[in-house]
Design goal:
The protein has helices at residues 33-43, 57-65, 85-95, 115-127, 186-192, 216-228; strands at residues 7-12, 27-28, 31-32, 49-53, 102-105, 132-138, 175-185, 200-204. The protein is an alpha/beta fold. It starts with 6 loop residues before the first strand and ends in a 7-residue tail after the last helix.
Length: 235
Amino acid sequence: MINGKTILAIIPARGGSKGLPLKNILPLAGKPLIAWTIDAAKKSKYIDRCIISTDDKKIANVSIEYGGDVPFLRPAEIATDTANSTDVIIHAINTVEEKYDLIVLLQPTSPLRGEKDISLALELMEKEDASALVSMANLRHPIEWTSRLTSNLRVPDLVNKSSNNTGRQEFDQKYELNGAIFISIIDLFIKERSFITKQTIAYIMPVERSVDIDDIFDFGFAEYLMRNTLTEKIK
């Protein structure tokens, strides 16, 4: 609870994954991937309850083993590759018996996000009197350096751009979603069906804690960071 507002956190963990099957329970730096997020949520001084939404019994059992709360198995219709994450969140909100004021989405694929990040994000949201918040990180390279490619590998979006020979320091800093933390007033989320609204503010996280695991390369990079540089910072 923060300033009288009760908080429900949801960790979504679908069993199917084309890139890394059951990646949410693959071992990362000594424990299953999902356990890092369960641990961060449990340490939070503000989260009243954190539940895991999964369709997979193996993930459910591992989550419970590491102290997770798995009150239900996600219905098959919202556990497909094309399932809408909004439906997953609203299903969880409507399934738990208690009513809460704020929803916090914590994806297990962001293991470098720690309890301090969760607390600081909630505190920032309260300080700014915001209705929604998303975590973001610096975009490492200017968006102006990107281009679509034609079928014959031409770069039409870069043609005649005055930015071709411009150093990165001369561009305005831009930011990208890092997937680690999403927060919203529940009534607003249900109405907008999104964390991204005109009222959303950003909590900026450093790039080194913004790894979002999608494939084996991300997994190996996260493990390297956790074992060699960030053990204390993410607690």
